[in-house]
Design brief:
- There is one protein chain.
- Strands 3, 4, 5, 6, 7, 8, 9 and 10 form an 8-stranded antiparallel beta sheet that branches. The protein has a 7-stranded antiparallel beta sheet with strand order 13-14-15-19-18-17-16. It has a 3-stranded antiparallel beta sheet with strand order 11-12-20.
- By secondary structure, the protein is α+β, with helices and mostly antiparallel strands.
- The chain has 2 domains: 7-240, no CATH class; 254-382, 3-Layer(aba) Sandwich (Protein Transport Mog1p, Chain A).
- Strand 7 and strand 8 (174-183) form a beta hairpin.
- The two termini are 34 Å apart.
- It has 9 helices and 20 strands.
- Residues 1-24 form the signal peptide.
Length: 385
Amino acid sequence: MNTLFKIRKIYFIFLVSLSAALLASCNFSEKKEFTWNPEVKELTGGDLEEWLHKASFENELKSDNPDEYMITNANVVFPFIGSYNNDVGKLYEDFASEKSNGSIFKNKTVLYKDPKWGDLFLNSVLLYESQEVYLKEQYTTTGNPVFSGLDAIHDSYSAHLAETSVFTNDYPKIKTGIYVVSIQNKDYLLGFYQKENLVFEIAIGYTQENLPAVLNKLKSVSDELGLNIKEWERATLKDLKALATKNTFWKDPYVGLYPDRYMLNIVELKLKDTPFHSVKNPKRGEYVYEYQSAQGTVSLATFLKKATKSSTEFNTDKEGFKEYKNGSHRLFYKEEKDGKFIRGQAVSYAKDSNYLELHFSFPEENKEAQAIIHEILKTIKIRSF
């Protein structure tokens, strides 16, 4: 079991080469500007790393040489470290401004191998825009070849989170909770906190013998960082009992279509938070969804067809179409008025030289239906390999 942080140091010459490769492959011309929330800036002092260091722990894992790049196995020890979702899916750091899923502006982690508290971390992120953040019930990662060789990619490490009675959600003012985390044969208390576009979490290992001390340590960290989380302060040992509920975790809003031979869905539509329901034995389309509105039927039908062109040719031959981009994915659509309805078609290239075709319609007067349809088009996931 991985219970110890490991450090590998790579000298600056390697870091320069790596950075050059990243710069060559990334387009920073569209990188978004970040604007501080005044309350968040006052709380953190405008420096996440310096702010996290206000927590009183010892023996930080870091390199004292600025010409070295440190690599740890922290993601194996803590598969959930710094990993957050919005309502659509995982949030990514904005290296190349290619992720449209609510990019992270800053992501800072401080690691400790504390003589009293053991292996632990503090993490904080700043989002470009305030949006509610969720934790997942389970996180899984593979081993790190840097430490364990190439075969490490076949190893799997999981963390399971359980809710406790310590939770409140008054987002954007505050969203916070304490979770019990099981990783292999070790248990942790995970403190989670969000205020506007600031997210913070801390994980400390515990046993039944030192659980009271660990809870008190979470409370002291809350005070040291200026969070003053009342829910943590009021928490008792009884409140830390792991619950079977799953009310606070991220819920996948997508429906998978067209499973391939490995049972991986080629297409995913964000339908679970919409009024759409599946139509059995549809007369049109391979998958059909619809619902009745006051002005008439709202419908969406899908077809997976064989492409006769390469993806490059397919994407350049779209005169008369408008476009949605989701990362590197491109979807083209067009609409026309048909009586009291708007009818549209959307197409997007998919794996194995296929393309997805969608037909949709909604009453022209129904702006809510229009917004639902276009949200589905904007957030569609299509595998290209």
